[in-house]
Amino acid sequence: MRYSRKGLLALGLAATLLVLPACSKKNEPAGGGATEVEVFSWWSGPGEGEGLAALIEDFKKNNPNVTFTNAAVAGGSGTQARQALATRLLQGQPPDSYQLHAGKEAASDIKDGRLEDITYLYDQNGWKDKFPKGLMDNLTIDGKIYAVPVNIHRSNLLWFSPKKLTEWGIAAPPKTWSEFLTQAATLQAKGVKPISVGQTWTQMHLLENVLLGELGVPKYNGLWDGTTDWKSAEVVAALDTFKKIMAVAVVGTDDWQPTIDKVVAGTAAYNVMGDWAAGYLQGPKALKYKTDYDVVASPGTTGVYNFLSDSFTLPKNAPHKAAAEAWLKECASTTGQDLFNPKKGSVPARLDADKSKYTDYLAWALQEWQNPSTIIVGSLVHGVVANNAWKSEIEKAYGVFFTGKDSAKFGAAVSTAYGANK
Amino acid sequence: MTTTQIEAPRAAPPESPRRRTRTRRSPYLTSARYVVLFALACFFLMPVYALVVTALKDPSQVDVVKMWQLPDGLSFETFSIVWPKLKNGFVNSLILTIPASLISSMLGAMNGFVLSKWRFPGADIVFPVILFGMFIPYQAIIIPMTQTMSKLGLAGGLDGLILVHIIYGIPITTLIFRSYFAGISDELIEASKVDGAGMLRTFFFVALPIAPPAFAVSMIWQFTSAWNDFLFGLVLTRTEYWPVTIALNNVAGAQTVPFNQAMAAALLASIPTLLVYILLGRFFMRGLMAGALKG
Amino acid sequence: MSRRIRTWGPGLLLVSPSLALLLVFVYGFIGWNGLVSFTQWKGLNPTYVVEGFDNYTYLFRDETFRNDVRNLVVFTVVFMVGSLVLGFFMALLLDKGVRGETFLRSIYLFPMAISFIATGIVWRWLLNSDRDVGTTGINKLFELVGLGFLHSDWHKTPSALAIAAIALPAGWALSGYVMSLFLAGLRGIPEELREAARVDGANERRVYWYVVRPLLLPVLMSAVVILAHISLKTFDLIYAIAPLDPRTETPALYMWLTSFRGGFFARGAAIATMLFFAIALVIVPYIWYTVRAERRK
């Protein structure tokens, strides 16, 4: 048999191939080393990334030996992050800590057994009395606490430009949605879009606040625990109002930042968005509160705080537990929260934060949050009042509602989904 | 001559136009043809134009509305902003694609050789069974895949992803090699058998040495396919092991990212496959044609 | 007997690793996925308790799923017809040979080298539908050449055909491939056949209609099958252009969203299984026909 050079080469090639897989990157070995921490969030866009960056910087100062990996996944309100996180959790490769909304969203992960009970951290650091009780209840199941809250955001806010409103002859922002619809006629005559919305979640954000404004607090709360009938006439009427609002809206497919840009630019008059918008407008956009932009409670919700809270968790089997705990300590510290929240546009979760750091819009927000006569309700879109499964079914039903415009059908679909996903 | 055959060295390439036995065509028709072809070329290149022009503009000049305007001066600043975000993904993609294409090509060569030149009973069933794997929707296997990779401890890093690309590359590489070896005369194999060689010897010392053209096709096709994959990368890797497509989506997919960064990122992520296509396009096209089975 | 085994035994052995891998990772997984589709797996922890056809009945009654299927049909039809027509037209233009053919062909084919995600990201901006001062993308091009009235809302149109706009980037990406197929098919037709028809007095158009067309049927079939299966699988492209928009959602996207966003893995598995059967319906006859035809030669 001839042993050609080419033949031997071929043999050599085959042998090399068998060795190759060993040269590719290996998975990280699991260990408790405090040398690295990977934190998963969706804070990567303007107005959200800056706050996180400030927190990370402080963390690095306090933990110089730990490498920080910012595993942020772009997409407002976690629209893409939730899927990416699900793949990680399914792979059995959780990050060292991930962002989670307090409330029913947290409950889903807790019930699936993916989070460590961190009551011990609370005990060790004396955190239990540093956070509002209502907030803690949303992170506790069976007496065990599962996350550390960093902030409180408010969802029911109406943003506008005072200069532009005067220009268009509007005296003041609307106090009810019917007032809005009247103003809308005037605005349209001037060639201005009365309100701007963007991607689906921003539209649902508007929807939840329209429901809140039209139905009032008790009925709104009832929507989420089965006491208010989604098929009742009042809910359907509120949904019809929502349809009228959407009919005069400029509907984009962008995330929330380009959507609120339209208000700044003057092509749209109003935008309903949470107060992370303040972080964006004050920060990257460098606008001044009260002169360049202003904000009031969305129509029909004065004195109501539609809250949501971001928190960080300790997943089970986190690769670097000690470093993760250090991260959680950073998140719970007053310094950390006071560096993070002013940039983020949110109010700190801790009761003993330094009030002087919260100026402009945040001063008002903090005052509202701490005012005992303010009524606090939870947000749908941001994980407080609905668990993952039901919320995704509501989103689906909204998709059908958006194209088909059938209010009664939407109400029925949400109601059925509630029953199926309790 | 069928178009499934990768050109064995002797066959005439089908790309060359045949001699015309008819004579003149109307010059108007010819010019019209060239105009249309040119217009079509513009259609295909239009996105590239927008891409390149935007990526080369100075960030301060960038305005979505001025998408079609040429830049005032060339600036590579956008690239320098975007590259750090993609660098990790780039490296991951390289680590992923090269072993995957090598190994799946090797397996394809083995299968292709046996299925065309060293057949066994049932080969006519084995080939379709392998081939079918090329067409399945990845959605149908993604859930079991995550579970399996997780249990095998291969999820999160690049090992699992490499394995996946090897496995799902086997059908097309098998097809490429089978077509290639089928185009080779049986005499070579017969001669080897007469010499007393068994299958393995024939494979290593007769088939493989003449297989480089097919290897080129197979590896280029696999490289492109693995580089451009999205769904598997999305589901099987964690952030630091994201291939460049996932990193690209994270950078440019969010609607808030400045439009020039999105364009520059898309351009950077596409450069390797584009380079391969430009320099080695001949092989790429043969891979394309092979994937169509019968012409 | 053993000598015969010794002849083809090693061959079987050489193929067996690939075969084993594929049997597990393709067929085994598809079966596993099918099994999951009969369970009620919700959330992150798998359950394999078979409960029945509930997921399928739910999907058949689910308006979102029906919308998605309708979107998929619209997309497939527009995409396939568009690519076939354009690809064939380009092949016709190139068939007789032009100067710079190789160069032109490489331009028409280069989109195949680019990932769908990059394609989607670029085309998302090209298909921008803002008006007036915000006009950009292809609409801006229309404006610049004086065809501003052609302004389209693309996939943001309220019409049910919104997803047809996404067939544009898909066609852009795949038309060159179709062209290559038809070109190879056209050139595979022996010149003698065409010459014989011409000698018989047929003008060029009749040559194409009576000689060329019937012989292109296999090519057409190939192209249709390949385009159909790509269309059903398309995920990256839509994910990049308009991921969470009900107007452009297809079953492939729905499967992803319902599994990884909502946690309804059993339902996602059911959608995936249906996608699989839809593709198998097209591909299995095609493979069978191809292998048979080859054996006949």
Describe it.
- The complex is a heterotrimer of chains A (422), B (295) and C (297).
- Chain A is α/β, with parallel strands linked by helices.
- Chain A has 18 helices and 16 strands.
- Chain B is 67% helix and 0% strand.
- The radius of gyration of chain B is 23 Å and the shape is globular.
- The termini of chain B are close together.
- The longest helix of chain C has 36 residues, at 2-37.
- Chain C has helices spanning 2-37, 54-61, 63-95, 101-109, 116-126, 137-144, 167-187, 191-199, 204-215, 217-233, 236-241, 251-260, 265-296.
- Chain C is mainly alpha-helical.
Order of helices and strands of chain C: HHHHHHHHHHHHH
- How much β-strand is present in the residues of chain C? under 5%
Portion of residues within helices of chain C? over 70%
Amino-to-carboxy terminus distance of chain B? 10 Å
Q: Quick one: CATH superfamily of the largest domain in chain C?
A: MetI-like
Radius of gyration of chain C: 24 Å
Number of strands of chain B: 0
Shape of chain B: globular
Distance between the termini of chain C: 29 Å
Written as H for each helix and E for each strand, in order along the chain, the element string of chain B is HHHHHHHHHHH
Summed up, the helix count of chain C is: 13
Question: What is the CA-based Rg of chain B, rounded?
Answer: 23 Å
Oligomer: heterotrimer
